[in-house]
Fold this protein.
Amino acid sequence: MAKKTVASLQKGEGRTFAKVIKMVKSPKTGAYTFQEEMVPNDKVNEFLAK
């Protein structure tokens, strides 16, 4: 399934997206987890500010 996602992002419309990886600390355990998401380039700063 990842191959289909990558293949669709190679087209002209997909280049306006970025894969953003954010490190989030769990309030219960204190361990860090990684949150990955595909976001439009103009919304990257909003995603990281959350």
In short: The longest helix spans residues 2-9. The helical segments are 2-9, 44-49.
